[in-house]
Every structure is written in structure tokens, then in C-alpha cells.
């Protein structure tokens, strides 16, 4: 792994902190999966991906959130739990190092989509199944203005996301902001992605990784300017 990093980045391994388990987070359209895949390739790590297209309720949820919120939310919760439980299984724990989700953020979706009775049911399920899960060594939270998120969602053109509204993305963006304002369970890197392209710009990607690998604790902000 070290040779892979040395050949791709300008790093001093004497000062670099190389996380063994990284979770990428952020709202819909922010580029979580894209960054997770690039990091997995750079570090020669296995990857743990959330697959939204497996959720049979998702397209119906975007068309009618009120009627389909609870089954959509519970499907995602059980899907994320199933994937994370693989981390406990011997050799698999040593292989899976990059995830494009953080299970602890799951309730923030529930809070903005479920009514009070549904949320109490969801919270009961959540509290009874989330325990003894491995914590990331680093969480990377990707941010962007809501209008930028909508542009990115429309650009990727996923059929299940065609009905997503700006108002819903704004709710999500606000919920993520509040969640990570209080989050202190692990080292955290907050990245403003408005002015960078982590999918297509090699320079933007390398600058972020070089910054990220200097983090060993605490909360950090990465806010690059367009010409950085």
C-alpha cells in the first residue's frame, strides 16, 4: 500500500497518517461513491458501497415521499447494517477499508421523512440493531451548496432520482450540516467541493488526499479556491 501512495502523491510517510478505515459522507449528488472508488484504487483497499438502486422503494419514495418513507428508510438501514456486519468476519475486516456511508447518519434521513409514530418505530429498530460496529479512523464529509447538488443529480441522470426537488435537497443539506456540527466520534474532515472536481481533476484529487493524510485527530476544514 505504501508504494502505491508514494508513487501517486507527494507524501512524507514519516508524517502521513494512513487511516485503516475511511467513511465518506455527504448528501445526494455530492460524489461520495466517486471519491470512495478513487481512494480504494489509490490505497489498494477493498471498498464497501451502498447501493441505492437495490432499494425497491426508492423511486416510489421520490414520487410520493409521505407514503413510501418508512419502507425506504428501513430497507436502507438493514442494507447498511448487513454490509457493516461483514467487517466483523475475520479476514473481511482486514480487507474492507473504504465505505461511502456512515451508519450513524442514518437517523437524519428518518427525521425529515417520517411522521412522529413512524420515527418512533424506526428509532426502536435502529437502537436495537446498531451496536459494536467498527468506527472509522477518519470520516470525510463532502459539502456543496444545494443548487450545486441539484445540478449534479440532474447531470448523472439516475432514473430513480428524476423527481428529486430542490426543497428536499435543501432539507438534506441542512440536516447534514446540523449532524456534523455536533459529530465528534471520530476524526473528521469537512470538504467544500463547490470549486473542485474530484471525479475528473487529478490535481484536485491529489491535493485533497495529501491534506487528508496529515489528519490524525480532531475536526478539520478543507476549503480550496478554484485556482488552488
UniProtKB/TrEMBL annotation:
The keyword Kinase applies. InterPro entries: DCK/DGK, Deoxyribonucleoside_kinase, DNK_dom, P-loop_NTPase. SUPFAM superfamilies: P-loop containing nucleoside triphosphate hydrolases. It comes from the Bacteria. GO terms for cellular component: cytoplasm. Keywords: ATP-binding, Kinase, Nucleotide-binding, Transferase. The keyword ATP-binding applies. Gene3D superfamilies: P-loop containing nucleotide triphosphate hydrolases. Pfam families: dNK (PF01712). ATP binds at residues 26-34, 152-156. One of its GO terms (molecular function) is ATP binding. The active site is at residue 100. CDD domains: dNK. This is Deoxynucleoside kinase. The lineage of its organism: Bacteria, Pseudomonadati, Pseudomonadota, Gammaproteobacteria, Cellvibrionales.
Amino acid at each position: 500500500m505504501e508504494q502505491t501512495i508514494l508513487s501517486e502523491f507527494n507524501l512524507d510517510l514519516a508524517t502521513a497518517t494512513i487511516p485503516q478505515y475511511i467513511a465518506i459522507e455527504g448528501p445526494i449528488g455530492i460524489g461520495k461513491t466517486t471519491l470512495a472508488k478513487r481512494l480504494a484504487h489509490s490505497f489498494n483497499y477493498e471498498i464497501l458501497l451502498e447501493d441505492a438502486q437495490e432499494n425497491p422503494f426508492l423511486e416510489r419514495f421520490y414520487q410520493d415521499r409521505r407514503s413510501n418513507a418508512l419502507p425506504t428508510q428501513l430497507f436502507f438501514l438493514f442494507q447498511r447494517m448487513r454490509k457493516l456486519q461483514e467487517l466483523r468476519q475475520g479476514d473481511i475486516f482486514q480487507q474492507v477499508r473504504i465505505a461511502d456511508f456512515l451508519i450513524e447518519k442514518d437517523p437524519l434521513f428518518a427525521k425529515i421523512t417520517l411522521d412522529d409514530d413512524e420515527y418512533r418505530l424506526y428509532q426502536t429498530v435502529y437502537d436495537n440493531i446498531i451496536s459494536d460496529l467498527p468506527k472509522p479512523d477518519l470520516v470525510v464529509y463532502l459539502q456543496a451548496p444545494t443548487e450545486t447538488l441539484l445540478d449534479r443529480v440532474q447531470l448523472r441522470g439516475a432514473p430513480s432520482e428524476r423527481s428529486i426537488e430542490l426543497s428536499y435537497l435543501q432539507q438534506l443539506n441542512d440536516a447534514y450540516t446540523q449532524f456534523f456540527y455536533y459529530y465528534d466520534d471520530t476524526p473528521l474532515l469537512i470538504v467544500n467541493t463547490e470549486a473542485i472536481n474530484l471525479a475528473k481533476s487529478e490535481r484536485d484529487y491529489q491535493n485533497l488526499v495529501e491534506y487528508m493524510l496529515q489528519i490524525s485527530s480532531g475536526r478539520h476544514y478543507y476549503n480550496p479556491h478554484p485556482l488552488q
